[in-house]
Amino acid sequence: MNKTVLLLAAGASALAISSASAADLIIDTPVEAGVVQASGNWDGAFIGVFGGYGWAELGSDIAPPGAQFPEPAGWLLGVAAGVNFTLDNGIVLGVVGDIAWADLTETLTQPGFGSLTSTVDWQGSLRGRIGFDGGAFLPYLTAGLAVAHNSVEAVPVLGPSFGDDATHVGWTVGAGVEFAATEDLSVDLAYRYSDYGDADYTLGLAPPSPLNITAHQVTVGLNWGF
Domains, the chain, ranges and CATH? Predict the structure, then answer.
């Protein structure tokens, strides 16, 4: 019995010494905090193409209350070019210009008076952008100068038709987000509101009249960075 007790005690001591030796071999090595690189590398110049849908309102500040005007709507297709600069805090600043062919049109017919057609056939902008580098995506706000070309045609109930066209200059604001598809290509989803301001139109024998245009547009584009 005493021998059994001595053997068990010796075994327990050997186990304790073995565990202590193993513990001495474990070296706690501190793990350095790593920095996750989330940059999408949005720096540099880019060119792109885009398409989308727009809808607008033609109006006049001197028209009598209740006067109706066309609300042209339709598709647009354009090209863009710009450049981005990324700051140390992840803010991305940029400048972008674009021009688009457009087919925003509507004919408003009023019984007893005839019809009035408005057609926006091209538009463009020069804008600043500010966004945040989210790695694979870049949300941004944008604002700047906007131009649009519009033509108006009036067809009275009696007599010949007449019309005029003008280029409007105003401003635009919007927001969007770019998604990196590959290292060089990104998909750009954007919305913009534009106020193209007043321009004078001469319709028939009447003196020039100021008409204004406001518009909304939703676009999707493909940009190539280099």
Answer: 89-225 (2.40.160)
Q: Is the distance from CB of 125 to CB of 144 less than 8 angstroms?
A: yes
Sequence-distant contacts of 123-126: CB under 8 A, at least 24 apart? 123/54, 123/76, 123/99, 123/147, 123/148, 123/149, 123/194, 123/215, 124/78, 124/97, 124/98, 124/99, 124/100, 124/148, 125/97, 125/98, 125/172, 125/192, 125/194, 126/95, 126/96, 126/97
- Please give the Cα distance from 193 to 60 (Å, whole number): 18
Tell me the C-alpha distance between 87 and 81, whole Å: 20
**Spatial separation of the C-alpha atoms in residues 94 and 80, rounded to whole Å:** 13
Residues 25-61 have pLDDT tens digits of 444 444 444 443 445 689 999 999 999 999 999 999 9
pLDDT (0 to 100) of residue 37: 44
Which backbone phi and psi does 28 adopt, to 5 degrees? -75, 110
Written as one string, the DSSP assignment of 82-138 is EEEEE-TTSEEEEEEEEEEEEEEEEEEEETTTEEEEEEEEEEEEEEEEEEE--SSEE
Q: Is the pLDDT of residue 165 over 70?
A: yes
- Cα 217 to chain centroid distance, Å, stands at 10
Q: Is the pTM of this model over 0.90?
A: no
CB atoms within 10 A of CB 198: 18
Q: Provide the residue type at 34 as one letter.
A: G
